[in-house]
Amino acid sequence: MSIRRENVCLFFPVHPNPNVKGIAKEILGKRERIYLLDPLDYSDFLAIMRSAWLIVSDSGGVQEEAPSLGKPLLVMRENTERPEAIRSGVSKLIGNSPGSLKQMLEENYSVETWIKSVKEVANPFGDGRSAARIVRVIEEKLAAKDRAAKVDQGTLF
What we know:
The protein is mainly alpha-helical. It has helices at 18-28, 42-51, 60-69, 83-88, 98-110, 113-118, 130-153, and strands at 10-13, 34-37, 55-57, 73-75, 91-93. Helix 1 links the parallel strand 1 and strand 2 (34-37).
């Protein structure tokens, strides 16, 4: 069987569970432009996500990473504990039926309005600068505590 969209391929990092690997290989293993991959390290996984046109996943972690990369995500779940991504418009909750996935893939391939709009959406999980802010607050608190200790010791006027 061939894929209808010749300019589209699928990279599928397959869970290492033998049952999952067996089913994935049986169903997808001999199809054109479908690449079944061993689990990836984080940097390789991010590289594939960065180069993707669209991401499809049921992973909670991927639901958090996709907005950081400005990538649209179809969430293959009935519900999610990360509704921020759905509300922001970065992700769409599509359930777990193959028919829903097919419909959403076709719809978004034909009309890329949503795909393109995701790049403009602010990350609902933050701007990526929280660590720097935390360090600054800790430094300010430590400096204030140090100043207060010097005042108590009479060394700061």
